[in-house]
């Protein structure tokens, strides 16, 4: 099982558990996490969900070997929910979602913070949105949520540069709420989760609904724009070069691409 699920004091902790793959999301993990969010949303005994990772990574994002197979293998079989299903579940999730970024957060490991109601980050963790490095477009409504959360210029750098963002930068930008020493991360995140979980679930849901309802149309529109760009770029020269470079263990070289790429 690539996802660990534990309940305590009305807090459901979801721990991404593919440490040998840096908790990268393959189709199975996308499906398991989606199902866990859907179950937590309707479980009357769950007030708060806490999402974290096992090992030295929060998550390395989408498994690039599966991404390569998706573009090159005609027999590739996607999962039941996949990436889009997980996003649907995050958009619809009615209860407080707390992220505890225990290590490297890449791709969805960074953009998921746009859906977090509270985000805690280990002082030695790092975040990266690698979209330009992969020759693709933003994801997870990050083109809307990140400018709203951290400001246009911070979001432009995070989304365009494919550079690592350390915990101090993430805190200064407002991408995370608290930075903790590694050994304090989960206890501190759990302490805050339990404060919320002691409140009426109906009230927590009402607060979140009233906060997020004005954002829904913009999130949906951003996802459509991103998906259109992603479809255009996926499998294009830049993306194929990035995936080939990953498979060959080298840095991509985008300078030799056709004009305009």
Describe the structure.
- GO terms for molecular function: delta(3)-delta(2)-enoyl-CoA isomerase activity.
- Pfam families: ECH_1.
- It is found in: Peroxisome.
- A hairpin with a 2-residue loop joins strand 1 (3-8) and strand 2.
- The protein has a 6-stranded mixed sheet with strand order 1-2-3-5-7-10, sandwiched between helices. A 4-stranded mixed sheet has the order 4-6-8-9.
- 46% of the residues lie in helices and 16% in strands.
- It has helices spanning 27-42, 64-72, 82-92, 108-111, 142-150, 152-161, 167-173, 185-197, 201-212, 216-233, 237-248; strands spanning 3-8, 11-16, 48-53, 57-59, 97-101, 104-106, 118-122, 126-128, 165-166, 178-180.
- The chain has one domain: 2-enoyl-CoA Hydratase, Chain A, domain 1, CATH 3.90.226.
- It is α/β, with parallel strands linked by helices.
- Helix 2 packs across helix 11 (237-248), helix 5 packs across helix 6 and helix 5 (142-150) crosses helix 10.
- It has 11 helices and 10 strands.
- The radius of gyration is 18 Å and the shape is globular.
- The mean pLDDT is 94.
């Amino acid at each position: 099982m690539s996802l660990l699920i534990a309940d305590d004091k009305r807090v459901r902790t979801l721990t991404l558990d593919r440490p040998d793959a840096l908790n990268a999301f393959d189709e199975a993990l996308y499906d398991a996490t989606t199902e866990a969010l859907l179950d937590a949303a309707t479980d009357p005994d769950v007030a708060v969900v806490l999402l974290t990772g096992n090992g030295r990574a929060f998550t390395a994002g989408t498994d690039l070997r599966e991404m390569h197979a998706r573009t090159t293998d005609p027999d590739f079989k996607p999962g039941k929910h996949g990436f889009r299903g997980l996003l649907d579940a995050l958009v619809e999730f009615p209860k407080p979602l707390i992220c505890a970024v225990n290590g490297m957060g890449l791709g969805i490991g960074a953009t998921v913070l746009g859906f977090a109601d509270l985000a805690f980050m280990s002082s030695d963790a790092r975040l990266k949105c690698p979209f330009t490095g992969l020759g693709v477009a933003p994801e997870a409504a990050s083109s809307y949520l990140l400018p709203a959360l951290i400001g246009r210029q911070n979001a432009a750098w995070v989304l365009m540069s494919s550079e690592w963002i350390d915990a101090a930068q993430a805190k200064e930008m407002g991408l995370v709420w608290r930075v903790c020493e590694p050994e304090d991360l989960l206890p501190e995140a759990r302490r805050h989760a339990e404060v919320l979980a002691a409140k009426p679930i109906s009230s927590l849901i009402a607060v979140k609904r009233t906060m997020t309802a004005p954002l829904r149309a913009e999130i949906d529109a951003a996802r459509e724009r991103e998906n259109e760009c992603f479809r255009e770029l996926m499998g294009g020269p830049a993306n194929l070069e990035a995936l080939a470079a990953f498979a060959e263990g080298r840095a991509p070289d985008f300078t030799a691409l056709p004009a305009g790429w």
